[in-house]
Design brief:
- 22% of the residues lie in helices and 21% in strands.
- The chain has 205 residues and is an alpha/beta fold.
- It has one domain: Alpha-Beta Complex (sialyltransferase cstii, chain A).
- It has a nine-stranded parallel β-sheet with strand order 6-5-4-3-2-1-7-8-9, sandwiched between helices.
- β2, α1 and β3 form a beta-alpha-beta unit.
- The longest helix is centred in the middle third of the chain and has 12 residues.
């Protein structure tokens, strides 16, 4: 079960790229905010949490849910862990790309194409058919996470530019406008703005 487009006409997806540090998040009425992975720890407000990661650190986040946040977790077929009643589980569809990534967005409700949790959050938002989507923290670099530079991602993110590019025709056909609030992001298929400008854009109907 996913939200309808009526409930989510504008969506802000917050990743954990370092460009998001020190960004101010104002109140955003009418904007559905998806916190990806550890962003749920430091965002002042989130409506949803999304991950397709099943690492122990992510499971600890899920086991300490924030009040009034809906949790979504895309898991592979055959995943054996006990399911949490506060989580809406989605089927993670694996492909033949890097780390099992799958080009294009899943069209079937309840399915998410694999590749990266921010990309999965885009697939979730796409199911809702919003009018506008903005990313912040989508840097696609290997230099570490916002608020935690001790180590970089577990594997290279060099596949992300092509992965996001593959979703372009579906987003355009659905009439969904998308901006990337990271000026130096390696994902260049969407217009790139400073994070604050992207937040201001998504705040307005």
């Amino acid at each position: 079960m996913v939200l309808s487009s009526v409930e989510a006409p504008r969506v802000l997806i917050v990743g954990t790229g370092p460009s998001i540090e020190k960004v101010q998040f104002p109140s955003l009425p009418g904007v559905h905010i998806i916190a990806v992975n550890h962003a749920v720890n430091w965002l002042p407000h989130a409506d949803s949490f999304f991950s397709m990661d099943t690492a122990p650190a992510i499971m600890r986040l899920i086991d300490r849910p924030r009040r009034a946040v809906q949790y979504y977790h895309a898991v592979p077929d055959g995943w054996q862990q006990q399911r949490r009643p506060w989580v809406r589980y989605l089927r993670r569809v694996m492909g033949m790309g890097v780390r099992g990534s799958q080009d294009r967005l899943a069209e079937s409700p309840g399915e998410i194409h694999a590749g990266n949790s921010v990309y999965g959050a885009l697939n979730l938002a796409y199911h809702w058919r919003p009018k506008k989507i903005a990313f912040v923290g989508l840097d696609a670099t290997d230099i570490g996470y916002a608020y935690d530079r001790r180590k970089g991602p577990a594997w290279s993110l060099q596949h992300l530019p092509d992965l996001f590019y593959s979703a372009g025709p579906q987003l355009e056909k659905a009439g969904i406008k998308v901006v990337n609030g990271s000026l130096n992001s390696k994902v260049t298929c969407f217009v790139r703005w400073a994070p604050q400008k992207a937040i201001e854009w998504i705040a307005n109907e």
